[in-house]
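User: Hello! I'm new to structural biology and keep hearing that structure can be predicted from sequence alone. Could you demonstrate with [LysW]-aminoadipate kinase? Please show me the input and the output so I can see what each looks like.

Assistant: Of course. The first part below is the input, the amino acid sequence of [LysW]-aminoadipate kinase. The second part is the output, the predicted structure written as tokens.
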Amino acid sequence: MIVVKVGGSAGIDYDAVCADLARRWKAGEKLILVHGGSGETNRVAEALGHPPRFVTSPSGYTSRFTDRQTLEIFEMVYCGKMNKGIVERLQRLGVNAVGLSGLDGRIFEGRHKDSVRIVEDGKTKILRGDHTGTVEKVNTDLIDLLLAGGYLPVLTPPASSYEGVAINVDGDRAAAALAVALKADALLLLSNVPGLLRAYPDESSLIREIPAADVESYLEFAQDRMKKKVLGAAEAVQGGVRRVIFGDARAGEPVSAALGGAGTVVS
């Protein structure tokens, strides 16, 4: 079982990712795809006159502030355009993919955080009306049913709160929780960089290996959204996933390249 997470930033080649997945799926591998959609969500939000607001937590993590209107735009893009675009690509390649959000069947479940602490202009503030959370529980029954039926699941945030409210969750950490729950052999976190860079954005500074017991010490090299990927990798290996690979989704055969050791390998 391999869980593949592909991000939503500029430069990602979804055709290449899907073509590679299709080849491996037809060869008999069990795969699940989790995807993002941040870049397109930002574009659509700007076009709709409700531009994104990104906030930084006291611990230095950057995330999207998700009020109700933002959540609705997020769902429109992630569950609609991005999810169905990927499912269509896979269907055209002969793979019977099924696209679902973490809200469907409560695949991803967690606690709703209505307020968030942020640092702005050097001051710590509390923002209310947030629709975010963290995946604390993965309900695998629906996933198992799809896999047993020969379908390739294509999953995306949002998740469900315990009260059934849609919540924006980090896709990398959701994929990590999924990989742990399914006892996956590997988790691939594919984005628009070749892996974790020691001196971002210098791609020649790629860190090729990270010892599983030492993942969190590499957080200092992670910039912006890469911090969540490193955190997700730490959670995955702590949960028993044997290998986590930060790979490049911009061209070629991204899944096969990552599984072959290209990128940053955590093991």
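User: So the tokens describe the shape?

Assistant: Right, they're a compact way of writing down the 3D structure. Reading them back into a model, for example: DSSP finds seven helices and 14 strands in the chain.
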